[in-house]
Amino acid sequence: MRRLGLSLGRWRPDVAVVLVPLLAILVLQYLSSRRLAEVELIAHQTTIARYLDAVTAGIRQMYENAAQEMLDVPGDVLAAKRFDDIARHFDSVDTSTARLLFAATLDGCLCLTRYFDPAAGTMSIGAEPDVEVVVLRASTLLRLRQQQWLDLDVSGLDVDEADPANRVVYRFVTGVDGNAIGLVGFVLDTDRFEGEFLPRAVAERLDQLPGGVPDNLIVRVSDPQGRVVTATHHGAGQADVLAARFDFVFRDWELSARSRHTAAARILESNAFSSWALTMTMSVSVIVGVLLTWRAAGRERRLSRVRNAFVANVSHELRTPLASIAVFGEFLRCGRVTSPEKVVEYGGHIEHESNRLRHLIDNVLDFARIESTAAEYRRDDAAIEDSVAAAVSAVDARRERDGFTILVTCPDSLLPAVRIDEEAMTRVFVNLLDNAMKYSGRSRRVRVDLSCRDDGVAVAVTDFGIGVAPDEQERIFHRFYRTTAPVDDGVAGTGLGLAIVRQVVHAHGGKVEVDSRPGRGATFTVVIPAAEASAVRENVGVSSAEDGPGMEAGARA
Length: 557
Fold this sequence. Notes:
The structure is a single chain. The chain is an alpha+beta fold. The chain has helices spanning 13-70, 75-79, 83-92, 129-146, 190-207, 264-333, 340-371, 384-394, 396-402, 422-438, 497-507, 544-547, and strands at residues 98-107, 110-117, 122-124, 157-160, 168-174, 180-188, 217-222, 228-231, 242-245, 254-259, 380-382, 405-409, 418-420, 445-453, 456-463, 511-516, 522-529. The two termini are 29 Å apart.
């Protein structure tokens, strides 16, 4: 029995038209996500670098402004050695950045220096030795410049950080003739810088970052020994460190920024991957939807073809017996047949075609009941031989017409009773016998073997015809399926017989087996379990005399 193609088929160009653009979009989205992650990383690093520059620029501006204000001492005041006026000047300005201020004037080979303590507001002659060394070093530079041993710029601020404990900012003071006559400066208050000015500068610039303060960002300042002077968070942080150095005072300290928990590169890469994964998931969903839609559309097309073929086959199967019945009935009605022998012959043809028509209608009705799950079976304890005999009788007319011999064999021992719907089981064996005769090819032999198996009975229907290919032995039980063998092209049928056989047998708790090789025939075996209470029957025999025509007497294995 043959079905008109329900295979998935080969790749279709219309599917490629949909899938190729989707795959291209997926690849482009992936590349775009990677590129976007790179751009975002560059933008992130640029923002952090600008922040670090803003912090260092803020520190520079603060100390430059403080130096300009504190060291604004007129040259004539310093030349006249009016240190009291200089002390009053120091006391009148903001000296929060200075630990100690000083003023020094050169008088020949002598260097006269006074030190101002902003905390006490007093001017003194001496200071700490380390501070005096720094002031002496600056005075020496000025003296070398006066003696033209050194080309020294005296117009701006200078910083001496040779001694990290005593960092000095100073400027040279010039007279009306433009020659340097001394210097003024101050020693930086490092403790206040660490505890107040630096943390404030870091925090103020963080607040100015686009989007606010990143929770994942660690900003810290380290001295040359690696000691963390200040930090926004504790911990070493992750990779992708950006660093900068102060460019006016504390030039040996490093300002750095790094990720607190996860490196920014990893975050951006993860975001890019998440975006790409989401796009891929959506694309895969679209692809799956397209494939399912295409498959459903293909299935509908195949079902439409099957339905059309089924209607055509059923129409043909119905018209053929109806046409024969109409012709022979017309002959009888018109009186063209006068001999009794012809009347019997024509009546036999009408009966045969009527049985054929009834068998076709029964199959269609059985299939309709199976499809609607409305098939009900009235099962009683019965002998399987009775159903076999009824089936052989039902196909007797065709057997005689086509010249078939049906050999039925039973075991010598009694077969157990089975619990079956005899009418439904008879149609099972009618379908198997009809199928055997359809596909017998040139052979005109069919054999039916009854036997005991697995606490039940087995009925094997064997033909010696074209056989069934191994890859089709499961599909022939599907509705509408018919074998694809070339010799099957002229065999009429609806493709329902074996599907009905399997469904009915399964409903009775049995099974259907097929054993076949192409060109060697096929054996379909129906196995039905025995009834729970089997009745022992004394006389079980299937012969041509007792069970109807078409069965050879005494045919036993």
